[in-house]
């Protein structure tokens, strides 16, 4: 039975047929992020052929789960992902539906992780109990979460079944030292085995207690950040049966309905004018994990069917775009003004490399929403930095931006900025 078939009226009235909160997974490659999501949702988020061959997550993956609470059992025994309690066999009530954002842990895919972080309301930070703490990407992901303002965190101590109690306790103490002074300093640390499902009920209970559903204002101008775009037509489809391009992402505020006119920024490149022009189209269909719907709200991955030529949306060509109602989004701009805070050391390097001040003329990678972009520093005055982007972006004032510098032939996270 799919969770959509168990939704009570109160949930449908408030959130519709979709998840109400986005929770990310972060941590070093092979520490069990995708395995944990499979244990919680029954879905394997690494579905692309290249991901399966390499055994790592490459793109940001989404998967949904409904959490239920037994009306009889004491916490945390009564939490499960099925309407029937795994502990006593009794009936359970829906707590909420959650969407998990599985981000890449490999260092070369950090830009993808940062893109996924832009849509997270909270996060699970996975740490493998059988490895040294912290591993490079564990540290980098935690700082990335902090950089992008994600404060609701649950630390997951995975693979405890591979250790003795004494070894697991020592690892727990190492984790406590590692998160000290960060947003995760007061986060609960839950020991589990994602492979066997050990203690998953306690983890669900901790998620429900510590990662709250944000208050959403449906009356605000709608904003959707794009993570995917594709052509759903199979080769050989007859012209009369061709469907328009599909765009996938997540709403952060507002509502979209079938039939709405939408604007996509920065749009597409006009080669003659050498400028990006926004696109205006109509929503022909809306989809969530529960199926085809008439309207969508913030929470989970949403698919928007459009009247765009499907060749325009294939191969994730719209990643990093922003969608809203016409005339409501910020104007395209290549000028980025930031109030910057640099880290003491570059993140993700094996050696401790001190972060040097940003210099005029240097090339940086910036993550604005779900868009990873390159830009050249045009002006530096104390903490105020101006960057000329190589291509325009739809930039929201007050937004968090991650900054990376090329170090040892990799883009390394060096700090964060707030758009001024």
Could you characterize the architecture of this molecule?
The chain is an alpha+beta fold and 420 residues long. It has three domains: 3-210, Rossmann fold (3-Layer(aba) Sandwich), CATH 3.40.50.300; 223-324, Elongation Factor Tu (Ef-tu), domain 3 (Beta Barrel); 332-419, Elongation Factor Tu (Ef-tu), domain 3 (Beta Barrel), CATH 2.40.30. Helices cover 17% and strands 39% of the residues. It has eight helices and 22 strands. The protein has helices at residues 9-15, 33-41, 49-54, 110-117, 136-147, 165-179, 200-210, 310-313, and strands at 21-26, 61-70, 79-80, 92-102, 122-128, 153-158, 189-191, 223-230, 246-253, 256-257, 261-270, 275-288, 291-293, 295-296, 302-306, 322-324, 332-347, 363-368, 371-381, 384-394, 400-407, 410-419. The strands form four sheets. The chain has a seven-stranded mixed β-sheet with strand order 3-2-4-1-5-6-7, sandwiched between helices. Strands 8-9-15-12-11-16 form a six-stranded antiparallel beta barrel. It is globular. It starts with 8 loop residues before the first helix and ends with a strand. The model is unreliable at 44-60 and 104-110 (pLDDT under 50). It is an enzyme of class 3 (hydrolase). Residues 18-215 form the Tr-type G domain. Pfam families: eIF2_C, GTP_EFTU.
Estimate percent helicity.
10-25%
Number of helices: 8
- Would you tell me the structural class of the helices and strands? alpha+beta
Strand order of the largest sheet: 3-2-4-1-5-6-7
- Beta fraction: 35-45%
The geometry reads as: globular
**Fold-level CATH name of the largest domain:** Rossmann fold
Number of domains: 3
Query: What is the assigned CATH homologous superfamily of the largest domain?
Result: P-loop containing nucleotide triphosphate hydrolases
Largest sheet: 7 strands, mixed
Supply the CATH architecture of the largest domain: 3-Layer(aba) Sandwich
Calculate Rg over CA atoms. Answer: 22 Å
Number of strand elements: 22
Q: List SSEs in N-to-C order.
A: HEHHEEEHEHEHEHEEEEEEEEHEEEEEEE
End-to-end separation: 48 Å
What are the low-pLDDT stretches, counting only 5+ consecutive residues below 50? Answer: 44-60, 104-110
CATH class of the largest domain: Alpha Beta
Average pLDDT for all residues: 87
């Amino acid at each position: 039975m799919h969770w959509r078939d168990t939704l009570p009226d109160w949930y449908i009235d408030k959130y519709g047929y979709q998840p109400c909160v986005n929770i990310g997974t972060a941590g070093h490659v092979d520490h069990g992020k995708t395995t944990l999501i499979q244990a919680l949702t029954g879905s394997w988020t690494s579905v692309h052929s290249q991901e399966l061959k390499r055994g790592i997550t490459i793109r940001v993956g989404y998967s949904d789960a409904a959490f239920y609470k037994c009306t009889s059992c004491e916490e945390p025994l009564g939490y499960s992902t099925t309407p029937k309690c795994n502990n006593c066999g009794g009936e359970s009530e829906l707590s909420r539906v959650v969407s998990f954002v599985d981000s890449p842990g490999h260092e070369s895919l950090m830009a993808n992780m940062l893109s996924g972080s832009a849509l997270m309301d909270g996060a699970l930070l996975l740490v493998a109990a059988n490895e040294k703490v912290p591993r490079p990407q564990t540290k980098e992901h935690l700082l990335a979460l902090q950089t992008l303002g994600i404060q609701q965190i649950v630390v997951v101590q995975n693979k405890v079944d591979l250790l003795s109690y004494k070894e697991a306790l020592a690892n727990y103490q190492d984790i406590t030292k590692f998160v000290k002074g960060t947003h995760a300093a007061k986060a609960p640390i839950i020991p589990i085995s994602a492979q066997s499902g050990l203690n998953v009920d306690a983890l669900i209970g901790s998620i429900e207690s510590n990662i709250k559903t944000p208050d959403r204002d449906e009356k605000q101008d709608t904003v959707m950040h794009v993570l995917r775009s594709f052509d759903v037509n199979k080769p050989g489809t007859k012209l009369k049966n061709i469907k328009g391009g599909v765009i996938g992402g997540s709403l952060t505020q507002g509502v979209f309905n079938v039939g709405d006119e939408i604007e996509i920024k920065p749009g597409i490149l006009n080669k003659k004018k050498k400028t990006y022009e926004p696109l205006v189209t109509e929503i022909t269909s809306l989809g969530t994990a529960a199926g085809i719907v008439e309207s969508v709200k913030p929470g989970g991955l949403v698919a928007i069917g459009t009247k765009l030529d499907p060749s325009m949306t294939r191969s994730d060509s719209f990643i990093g775009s922003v969608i809203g109602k016409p005339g409501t989004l910020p104007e395209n701009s290549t000028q980025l003004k930031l109030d910057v805070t640099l880290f003491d050391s570059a993140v993700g390097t094996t050696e401790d490399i001190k972060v040097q001040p940003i210099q005029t003329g240097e090339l940086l990678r910036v993550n604005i929403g779900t868009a990873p972009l390159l830009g050249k520093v045009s002006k530096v005055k104390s903490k105020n930095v101006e960057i000329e982007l190589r291509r325009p972006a739809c930039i929201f004032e007050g937004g968090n931006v991650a900054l990376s510098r090329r170090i040892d032939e990799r883009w390394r996270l060096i700090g964060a900025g707030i758009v001024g």
